[in-house]
Amino acid sequence: xxxxxxxxxxxxxxxxxxxxxxxxxxxxxxxxxxxxxxxxxxxxxxxxxxxxxxxxxxxxxxxxxxxxxxxxxxxxxxxxxxxxxxxxxxxxxxxxxxxxxxxxxxxxxxxxxxxxxxxxxxxxxxxxxxxxxxxxxxxxxxxxxxxxxxxxxxxxxxxxxxxxxxxx
Length: 168
Prior knowledge:
disordered N terminus, Copper chaperone PCu(A)C, 1 helix, Lxx211020-like, Immunoglobulin-like, disordered C terminus, LpqE-like, globular, PCuAC_sf
C-alpha cells in the first residue's frame, strides 16, 4: 500500500475501533456507550441503537449487568423538570431503528457506590429481547460530551420507580 493510503488507513483505525456492533436474529445493535460519571455519582446511563432488519417486531425487555439495579428508562419533561421513569419494554418494529440517547430512552446502571465510569473502561451487559433472546454487549465508556449534564454528573435527578423494582 502506498504511504499516503497507509497513513489514511491508520487514521481511520481509531474510529473503526469505536464503532462496535452486535447482531442477533435480524437485530443490529450499534455502538453501546456510557459516559463518564463523577466520583460521587450513584448512577450512570447507557445508550445504543437497535435496528430491526427482520420481518417481525421485537422488543428490548431487560438489560442485565453487574450492578445492584439495571433498568430501562425513558425521560420526559413534566412541569419544566426532566423526569425519568422505568419502562417494561422498548418496541422495535421491523425495518425501524430505535435510538437510546440522552434525553430519551436509556439504560440506567444504578448503585455505582463510589466506583465511577471512567473513559476507556467497558461495561459488560446482556440485552434481553422478547423474540431474539439474549446478546452480550460491552458499553464503552467515553468522555462526557461538552454541555451534557445528564446522568452521573452530580448524583441528582428526578427518577421514578427506583425502589420498587429489584435489580438484575
